[in-house]
Amino acid sequence: MERVRMSETHGESLGSIILHHVTNDLNHKFLNLHLFGYDISITKHVIMLWIAAAITVSLAIYGTRRYRKNENAEPKGLSHLYEILINFIRNDIVIPNIGSSHCQFWTPLITTYFIFILTCNFLGLIPLFDLVPGGSSTVTGNFNATAGLATITFFAIIIAGTMKHGFMGYWKSMIPGGVPGPVLLILIPIEILGMFVRPFALTMRLGANMTAGHIGMLAIFALPIILAAAPVGIASILLNTGIYFLEMIVSFVQAYVFTLLSSVFIGMAIHAEH
């Protein structure tokens, strides 16, 4: 009975630890700031977003430095990898979904999405950030961060449709021609709702998938403490090692899915006639 009570106590404390590591803890602020009544304090996730943004910009500057000096320069090292990545995103994501005539304009945004999200995902796999107070080590597990990215896509969709069809033409293109009036009463609210469902789906998909992996890893690490069994501890370490490498693959997949869906939604706004 005593062992059961200890296990329950450990389970409750470990449950709170798991929640602490997969949520955004606003009680730990590095700098408390408010603007017009809004909380814009500097938290752990804000700093991680700054780090990811700095890495993304640095890669862009360093990866294209040879081309700024000479457009016909032969790519080497990081420049070569950067060119491969851009060609992949342009040829396999942007052109098939947005179109070759619009790829020059939208490839920079989609490439930035991929590199930035992938960087955020990888930062969450560094154990150092787990030691910093302030909640989850994965910034893309914070729905505020993923909602911000999805909001950019939301406005990009409107901008893409407006550039192609004009302001009124874009809104008219959302409704098929020849639809009876009574059907419009149903169709228009559905189309308006669909505009907000798309960024909501992007927000939830990225945030939930990145959070789920960390919950699994923390839960497996907690098993030997709950069960008070050393062999389980060895097994959990081996299992988590495998899950860690799986999380690296998931980081790539989720960055790819977000950029792919963003391209699809932008392409739907441009090619609304189809």
Provide an overview of this structure:
The protein has 274 residues and is mainly α. It has one domain. The chain is 75% helix and 1% strand. It contains nine helices and two strands, in the order H-E-E-H-H-H-H-H-H-H-H. The protein has helices at residues 2-22, 44-63, 65-69, 78-97, 103-123, 143-165, 167-173, 181-227, 230-270, and strands spanning 34-35, 38-39. The protein has a two-stranded antiparallel sheet. The longest helix has 47 residues, at 181-227. Mean pLDDT is 79; it is low at 1-12.
Topology readout:
Blueprint: H1 2-22, E1 34-35, E2 38-39, H2 44-63, H3 65-69, H4 78-97, H5 103-123, H6 143-165, H7 167-173, H8 181-227, H9 230-270
Brief write-up:
The chain is mainly α and 274 residues long. The protein is built from nine helices and two strands.
State the end-to-end distance: 67 Å
Strand residues, percent = under 5%
Strand line-up in the sheet with most strands? 1-2
Principal-axes shape call: globular
Which radius of gyration do the C-alpha atoms yield? 23 Å
Secondary structure: number of strands:
2
Quickly give the structural class.
Answer: mainly alpha
Elements, N to C (H/E): HEEHHHHHHHH
Whole-number tally of structural domains? 1
Unreliable runs: 1-12
Percent helix range: over 70%
The average pLDDT score comes to: 79
Helical segment tally? 9
User: Sheet bearing the most strands, described?
Assistant: 2 strands, antiparallel
Features:
2 strands, single chain, disordered N terminus, 274 residues, 1% strand
